Amino acid sequence: MAVGDCSLSIQKGAITGLIGPNGAGKSTLFNIIAGFLKPDAGTVSLAGENITGLPPYKLFRKGVLRTFQVPHEFDRMTVLENLMLVPPGQWGENALAPLFRWRRVREQEMTVRKKAEDVLDFLQLSRLKTELAGNLSGGQKKLLELGRTMMTDAKIVLLDEPGAGVNRTLLGNLANDIRRLNQELGYTFCIIEHDMDLIMQLCHPVIVMAQGKVLAQGAMEDLRNNSQVQDAYLGGPAQ
Q: Strand pairing partners for 16?
């Protein structure tokens, strides 16, 4: 049982950290929330609505977005095209619409393109908009994944190790963008991360998982002095 008797809540408008040793059940929990795995028991709720077991595409339309430790870009499409693909329900997806409703298709495409260009400006990636996504560095791909979450009305964004494999300069940019999305646009984040500096910088509260359960939660400063957390994850008392 990867996750059992695990109960937690993510506050709207917060950046919540989710930490714990490898095998604690963090990614499994994300997969359950985002619909990639169906739980054997228990309930997942979004703003009071039971969303347990809904498939990812339905949860996506409800504003539940999940990123992965290894980015999943369309590597042979440009950075701009990767963003323009995201919004659901586009008229161009209908095979007959370009023939009979071409003006509507064109207008919508222009609107989506403008939004994608605004997102790239926000992330300081505009210079790469015509670059194939497969040519980006690991850190740039993480920024692109964050940009994809900005192309729809996200209610909660589940970030799985956004700092993994990212150099310190781009990691600073990524942290700043997450903070701006939270403070300026009201995005709610839950972040799995092993980089404690990033967790300290961004997250409050922080939830600690171990053996598929919540071990403790609160401010990172307090958790560092929690003996159970030290034994399970942090490797001894804080110095």
A: 190
